């Protein structure tokens, strides 16, 4: 039997013999980007790209099982989004992992850029731990800076900032692919990117497009457009675009104020040190004070009475409406739930975006639970009448269809997902349900109601 001292020596020798991997689960050759507390802000939080970050411990069995799928997801998302990992077993990273709310391993978080620089939206990923599911979830959240153009507004878009280079994707698809969205991020601020459907025949004929998809570059300054003939892969397309403008550095290029500050710092002899990455806490605070606070978009209109709801959305000739059905609150003074707030803010953001672009969008409304017609509408559509969460529905009384926003995935009402759902409706994509009888207010019912009201 070993003496205590001998046992300790044996354990120590075994530990010393174990291979040391400073990078944790992922080697330097791994497609997964390894970040720590210092580099997270610079590489993830301040980036224009969407990222997914795994918080792990090398000894965790589930983390080891996830590694092959996670590395495969990183390869598939290369050039489209970032796939990163943080070793929470590293003492230097433990405070950071705690700040990020990590309570178990592995924890996956999707980081999506927002309007506030350095203040991205961070949400837990709780989907399947497969490469495909991870890729789909991240790709869905890639910001969309691609403008959809038609024959009617092509000239207006082309005349905007005449000297600025532009690129147009001609496609048969109604959705905006991850690749073209990623390219728009690469050249954000230097090349305006748009997408045109094949059915826009005037635009197709104007640029002599014979096959789809086709990519056209307009270098600006009156130069003739150039049709891309290479592979539809990011690398060659970036090189093609680069003849008109250089791609952005990653993370996002500094603002003019930040640049001027850097120049002053250099002039004074003070250079940033290697252990003080750009996008650190200090520079984020400075940027917050120097940049104006963005004004929140105006709230969407409210349909507070049955008559208003019926007149606008439930009459026989009513077109498409999107309605946010607000849940009941036990106490009138109780603040709305987080999901209700997020849903309304996302709808407001989408509506505001279309207003700024001067593009036509069907009306978006909120319907409070105090509106008696809201309960009847929920019942008619088979929605829970005592629902404690907000429901978003689109319906078209004239054509007799309706569609429910699928919020089953952790009640995710993020702007990216809500906008994608609305875009699909605009383009006539996705399943539609037939409106049940009794939802649309017929002429006879309206007349009977009017007679009753006069009594």
TrEMBL record:
PROSITE patterns: THIOREDOXIN_1, THIOREDOXIN_2. Residues 248-304 are annotated as: Disordered. Residues 1-22 form the signal peptide. It catalyses: Catalyzes the rearrangement of -S-S- bonds in proteins. One of its GO terms (molecular function) is protein disulfide isomerase activity. It holds the Pfam family Thioredoxin. Keywords: Disulfide bond, Isomerase, Redox-active center, Signal. GO terms for biological process: response to endoplasmic reticulum stress. Residues 263-274 have a biased composition (Low complexity). It is an enzyme of class 5 (isomerase). GO terms for cellular component: endoplasmic reticulum; endoplasmic reticulum lumen. This is protein disulfide-isomerase. The lineage of its organism: Eukaryota, Fungi, Dikarya, Ascomycota, Pezizomycotina.
């Amino acid at each position: 039997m070993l003496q205590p001292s001998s046992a300790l020596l044996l354990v120590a020798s075994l530990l010393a013999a174990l291979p040391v991997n400073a990078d944790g689960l992922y080697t330097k050759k791994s497609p997964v980007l390894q970040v720590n507390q210092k580099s997270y802000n610079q590489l993830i939080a301040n980036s224009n790209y969407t990222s997914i970050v795994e918080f792990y411990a090398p000894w965790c069995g589930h983390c080891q099982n996830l590694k092959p799928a996670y590395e495969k997801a990183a390869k598939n998302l290369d050039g489209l989004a970032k796939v990163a990992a943080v070793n929470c077993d590293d003492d230097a990273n433990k405070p950071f992992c705690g700040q990020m709310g990590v309570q178990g391993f592995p924890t996956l978080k999707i980081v999506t850029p927002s309007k506030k620089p350095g203040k991205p939206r961070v949400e837990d990923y709780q989907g399947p731990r497969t490469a495909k599911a991870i890729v789909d979830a991240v790709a869905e959240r890639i910001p969309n800076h691609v403008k959809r153009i038609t024959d009617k507004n092509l000239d207006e878009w082309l005349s905007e900032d005449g000297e600025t280079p532009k690129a147009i994707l001609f496609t048969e698809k109604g959705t905006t692919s991850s690749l073209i969205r990623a390219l728009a991020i690469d050249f954000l601020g230097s090349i305006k990117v748009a997408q045109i459907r094949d059915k826009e025949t005037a635009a197709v004929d104007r640029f002599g497009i014979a096959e789809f998809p086709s990519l056209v570059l307009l270098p600006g300054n009156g130069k003739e457009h150039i049709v891309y003939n290479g592979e539809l892969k990011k690398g060659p397309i970036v090189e093609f675009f680069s003849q008109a403008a250089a791609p952005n550095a990653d993370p996002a290029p500094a603002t003019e104020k930040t640049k001027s500050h850097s120049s002053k710092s250099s002039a004074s002899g003070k250079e940033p040190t290697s252990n003080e990455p750009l996008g650190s806490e200090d520079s984020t605070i400075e940027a917050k004070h120097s940049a104006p606070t963005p004004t929140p978009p105006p709230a969407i209109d409210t349909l507070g009475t049955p008559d208003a709801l019926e007149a606008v959305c439930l009459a026989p000739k009513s077109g498409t409406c999107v309605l946010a059905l607000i849940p009941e609150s036990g106490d009138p003074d109780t603040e709305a739930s987080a999901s209700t707030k997020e849903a309304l803010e996302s709808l407001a953001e989408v509506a505001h975006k279309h207003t700024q672009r001067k593009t036509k969008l069907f009306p978006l409304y909120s319907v409070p639970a105090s509106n008696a017609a809201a309960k009847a509408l929920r019942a008619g559509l088979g929605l829970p009448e005592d629902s404690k969460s907000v429901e978003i529905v689109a319906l078209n009384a004239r054509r007799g269809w309706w569609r429910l926003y699928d919020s089953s995935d952790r009640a995710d009402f993020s702007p990216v997902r809500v906008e994608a759902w609305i875009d699909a409706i605009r383009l006539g994509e996705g399943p539609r349900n037939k409106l049940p009888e009794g939802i649309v207010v017929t002429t006879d019912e309206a007349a009977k109601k009017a007679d009753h009201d006069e009594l």
